[in-house]
Amino acid sequence: MAMECVASARKAESIGKKFTIKGWVRTRRDSKGGFSFLEINDGSSFGNLQVIANNTLQNYQTDILKIGTGCSVVIEGVIKGSPAKGQETELVADSVQVVGWADPNTYTMQKKGHTFEYLRTQAHLRPRTNTFGAVARVRNQISKSIHDFFQEKGFLYINTPIITPSDCEGAGHMFRVTTLDFLNPKTIAKAEDDFFGKPVFLTVSGQLEGETYACALGKIYTFGPTFRAENSNTSRHLAEFWMVEPEVAFNDLIQNMDLAESFIKRIIRDALNQCGEDMQFFEERIEKGLIQNLELVLNKDFQRISYTEAVEILKNSGQTFEFEVAWGKDLQSEHERYLAEKHFNGPVILYDYPKEIKAFYMRLNDDGKTVRAMDVLVPRIGEIIGGSQREERLEILEARMQGAGLKPEDYWWYLDLRRFGGVPHAGFGLGLERCVQFITGMANIRDVIPYPRTPGSADF
RNA sequence: UUCCCGAUAGCUCAAUGGUAGAGCGCCUCGCUGUUAACGAGGAUGUUCAAGGUUCGAGUCCUUGUCGGGAAGCCA
Q: Which nucleotides of B are covered by protein (CB under 7 A)?
């Protein structure tokens, strides 16, 4: 990393070296001592590089004194130790070239605090702020950790289709993909006339296709965009989000839990180690106690209890919940948060849920009432991972599909995995944006993806 | 989708039914190895939209639009 960027220029080992820095001005402060301070950011680190621009520069009066927040510049100079507090190094400019001006009367990114609500209307410029720069870097690190984690374990990265004729969950609304013009009814004919000759949708999960590759190649993961047309208006839902879905042949639910736990811990460890300055910012300005909470999750063994045990704990908790706790009912957010935040004060994995509240493909237990499902709950977020051991027995799977109102013949290829060389296998899904929320402490999911897509809103 | 809250200067917000305000940002000047710099002065308004009540509406009523919070669904 001998690149000439702000991140390296800020390090003491760069003192004495000649640098060319290309970036955007955050602030300018003039000194009547005969020079100006410029704070430059180029995205390579959270902190800015302080530049000293002396009034002996030929364009000092004509350009430099007019530089404001948002201007792009190319600056050449030598890195020196900074005589004042606040930064280790500074760049003493030999030349300052303004590449692009930013009119301070119309430029919407001001030097000081904007609300996240306002910045959402400026999604194209918000990456120039401290917060969104930090989110982008941490999100990138998480994506890298995801690939590193699985690649180092020998998983294959599989790209499952985004346009699909199958409905993975058997529930939930999907986005229809069509070339038919619904605004012009005269042209509408039949579904067979559509581009693919049948109804197709944007994927809600790559799991089923992922299973086919796991049942051939052993260990795989998918990592791509996912779409849900649910009318969910919350700080934790997007219509378009990114999901990671590992799938491992021959794994059972316990091995699935082990994988999920080490996976989460790897992401946390990398974020703390690789994004220290960004994480410190989130700790100080976004969520107090964030780092301590992450270290708690990193250092604690995840508690593992069955759904049935969880129901008993909640019933005996003495807490009054808005929603009733009863075996057979799904746990509500308040219940999950009580378990992760109050009762265990740390991450919890719940498993063996009633079959009625879980998907058809989860393996039925011998009790006939529960399935090999698991949810990983963490403090502050609640469910961050959901997964299961898959049903590998053909007859039971067919029966459960029919019980869920699905036609087994529509899933002939999925059932073939059970007909030919079938094996136990297990996997889980992690929503990337929820993971970014968990790591950064950002309260609203719309602020951890560059261009959020939510019901009634697809700007930019 | 349900419930609650909100919409006023570029931004964040004030304003008993009676003359439209402040802080920040911006501009000018001053001061300073400054760093959310500081001090003084200045410019800035279709009060979200459409109706209604009233002598008079930013303020009250109705509808709509947009935003936020909580819940449900989930990742």
A: 1-2, 10-13, 24-27, 31-37, 66-75
Q: Which of A293, A309, A451 is nearest to A384 (CA)?
A: A293
Phi-psi region of A85 (alpha: psi -120 to 50; beta: other; left: phi over 0): beta
Extract the tokens encoding A100.
Answer: 């692009």
Q: What is the CATH number of domain A127-447?
A: 3.30.930.10
Rounded to two decimals, the ipTM of the complex is: 0.90
Residue A367's SS3 state is: coil
Instruction: Round and report the angstrom distance from CA (A454) to C1' (B45).
Output: 32
Assigned CATH for A6-107: 2.40.50.140
Beta bridge partners of A248: A219, A426
Number of Cβ within a 10 Å radius of residue A454: 17
Q: How many CA atoms lie within 13 A of A39 on its CB side?
A: 16
User: CA of A133 vs C1' of B21, distance in Å?
Assistant: 35
| pLDDT tens for each residue of chain A, 460 residues long | 458 999 999 999 999 999 999 999 999 988 877 889 999 999 999 999 999 999 899 899 889 998 989 999 999 999 999 988 889 999 999 999 999 999 888 888 877 678 999 999 999 999 999 999 999 999 999 999 999 999 999 999 999 999 998 765 554 689 989 888 776 766 666 778 889 998 899 999 999 999 999 999 999 999 999 999 999 999 999 999 999 999 999 999 999 999 999 999 999 999 999 999 999 999 999 998 999 999 999 999 999 999 999 999 999 988 888 888 999 999 998 899 999 988 998 999 999 999 999 999 999 999 999 999 999 999 888 889 999 999 999 999 999 999 888 889 989 999 999 999 999 999 999 999 999 999 999 999 999 999 999 998 898 8
Estimate in Å the CA A330 to C1' B74 gap, whole number: 12
Domains of chain A, by residue range, sit at: 6-107, 127-447
